[in-house]
Automatic annotation (TrEMBL):
Subcellular location: Cell membrane
Family matches, as PANTHER family: BIOTIN TRANSPORTER BIOY (PTHR34295), BIOTIN TRANSPORTER BIOY-RELATED (PTHR34295:SF4)
Keyword Transport among record annotations: yes
Main subcellular localisation: membrane
Assigned protein family: Belongs to the BioY family.
Protein name: Biotin transporter
Length: 194
C-alpha cells in the first residue's frame, strides 16, 4: 500500500516537473513582439496542455513551479526574460493568468466527456478555449489596465491581437490530447489529481 502511494506521488511530481519544463522549453521558440508590450509566445500552449493532461491540481502546480522559477530569475520566458521585474511589466496579468488558466482548463476537462479519443479532443478544445483564452485573456486585460495603465477599451482591443493565435493553440492542444488518448487509452484527462 505504501509503495503504491509513493509511486503515485513520484509519478505526480515527475509530471508536474515535466510540464513546468515543457512550458519553459516552449519559451525557446522566438517570440513575436507587439506594440502593447506583450509578446506572442508558444508558452500558452503548454499551459493549456498542462490543464488538459494533468488536471486542475497538477496543472496548477506545474505552472506555479514554472512561475516560481521565473520569479527566481531563471530566463525561462520567451526572449530569455525572467526575474521579479517581469511581474511588474505589461505581461504581469498574463503570467498570473497562466495559473488560473491551467486550473480552469483542467477543471473543465475533468467535467467534459472523454470516452473516445475524438470526444477527448473536443473536450480539450472546449476546455482550452474557456481556460486558455477566456480566463487567461481576462487576467491579461486586467494586467494591461493595472500595470500598463491602458483604458479598459484599449486593453481589450490590444488583447484581441492574441485571440487568433491562441485559438490555433487550442486546436493544437486538442490534437495532442487526441494523440495521447489513442496511445494511452487509460489516461484520465483532467482527472488524475485524486
Amino acid at each position: 500500500m505504501k509503495t503504491a502511494i509513493t509511486r503515485r506521488q513520484s509519478e505526480s511530481m515527475a509530471l508536474v516537473g515535466l510540464f513546468a519544463a515543457l512550458i519553459a522549453v516552449m519559451g525557446l521558440i522566438p517570440k513575436i513582439d507587439l506594440p502593447i508590450g506583450v509578446p506572442i509566445t508558444l508558452q500558452t500552449l503548454g499551459v493549456m496542455m498542462a490543464g488538459c493532461l494533468l488536471g486542475p491540481k497538477r496543472g496548477l502546480q506545474a505552472v506555479l513551479l514554472f512561475l516560481v522559477a521565473v520569479a527566481a530569475g531563471l530566463p525561462l520566458l520567451a526572449g530569455g526574460r525572467g526575474g521579479l521585474g517581469v511581474f511588474m511589466s505589461p505581461t504581469a496579468g498574463y503570467l498570473v493568468g497562466f495559473a488560473a488558466a491551467a486550473f480552469a482548463t483542467g477543471l473543465l476537462m475533468a467535467m467534459l466527456p472523454k470516452a473516445t479519443p475524438l470526444r477527448a479532443a473536443w473536450s480539450a478544445l472546449i476546455a482550452s478555449v474557456v481556460g486558455g483564452v477566456l480566463v487567461l485573456h481576462s487576467f491579461g486585460i486586467a494586467g494591461l489596465v493595472l500595470v500598463a495603465k491602458l483604458s479598459l477599451a484599449q486593453a481589450f482591443w490590444g488583447d484581441l491581437m492574441f485571440v487568433p493565435g491562441d485559438l490555433i493553440k487550442c486546436v493544437l492542444c486538442a490534437l495532442v490530447v487526441h494523440t495521447v488518448a489513442k496511445a494511452l487509452p487509460d489516461w484520465r484527462f483532467g482527472g488524475r489529481d485524486a
